[in-house]
Amino acid sequence: MLQVPMDVFAYTKEAVAAARGERLVFANSAAREILGSDCVGKSLACLMGVEVAETQASNFVADVCVSGRSFALRATKQEGMQLFFLTVHEKHPELLNDAFIYSLRNSLMTLSLALDMCRLRAEKINDEALLTQIQEINRSQFELTRLVSNVSLMRDQLGGGECFEPVKLDLAQLMRAFAHCVQDLEKNVEFHISTPDSLCINADAQQMKKLLSNLVSNCLIHGTGLSRISINLMDTAESAIISVSDDGCGIEGDKLHRVFDRYKHIYTLHELNCGAGLGLSLVRLIAQRHGGTLLMESRAGHGTTVRVSINKNTKDGLSLRSGTEELFDVKTALVELSGCLDSRYFGEKYMD
């Protein structure tokens, strides 16, 4: 029954492989160039990693590392078989140069000082209308701050910059602190968090904060109609598994494979405030930098789940600093969630 589809895939330029159960049963020539000429008959776990092999979803996307090269993977079930489509990740061009990023940060600092002075003046004369407008400007300033931070970090990651500083980090404590901040700010969504009492890993604390906040803000921005977000942390022999799920609108199957593409989200005019599409791309890079992977599954009308594995034993540049790495304060949360919070959170009560 499946002979015709397999024959069709044999002549496509895209790398296509198929598995039945836990083993690969087909690979076209493009897939064999990636997975090896003897890949048919081997286990999925060996070829594409345990996370991919053990995923039960009918349709999902993930990033996989094969022989030191990174590929985007799309998976779908068809008549009892799992089909895998492998493509090389988009070539990352130079994003912004150092001088431009520095100029943006300098302008944001000047804007912040000017806004503080305006707010003090508006409070002195008790001008409520002006204070409301200042809150809106504050939120926009925080959104720009987050965007510049994301772009700068992505540029460093892609350019091999010295921005990776792993420390002894209690990831469970960091996640609980983050969830507490988010719960205080976003009252319309029910949050569930499940972590061990403690889970210490070697990781870059700032990058872990970025990873968590980008995953949750992605839910809040794109999960139209959601009422619940679940944040979970699981411990395995080699990895810490972070899982963030929502019960929102989900993603149509024909759009799922584009979620990692920067600047390429297809928005209607009323959706143009949804961001530049950097969030998941940055999460993927952070996971890779920590020896892990990202896997995303989604069904239209049923929500989205993103799972990120982090190698617990990252050694590069290990420092034994400790003390404030696990903190996630309200100011940081305001910056990282500025794209999905009401402007009232950017007034005197929270800004101070």
Brief write-up:
This protein is an alpha+beta fold and 352 residues long. The protein has 11 helices and 12 strands. The longest helix is centred in the middle third of the chain and has 32 residues, at 128-159.
Written description of the protein model:
The protein is α+β, with helices and mostly antiparallel strands. It has two domains: 3-88, 2-Layer Sandwich (Beta-Lactamase), CATH 3.30.450; 166-351, Heat Shock Protein 90, CATH 3.30.565.10. Helix content is 39%, strand content 24%. It contains eleven helices and twelve strands. It has helices at 3-10, 29-35, 44-48, 50-53, 98-124, 128-159, 171-185, 205-222, 279-289, 330-336, 348-351, and strands at 15-20, 23-27, 59-66, 69-78, 81-88, 166-170, 190-194, 200-204, 228-235, 239-246, 294-299, 303-311. It has a ten-stranded mixed beta sheet with strand order 2-1-5-4-3-11-12-10-9-7. Strands 6-8 form a two-stranded antiparallel ribbon. Strand 4 and strand 5 (81-88) form a beta hairpin.
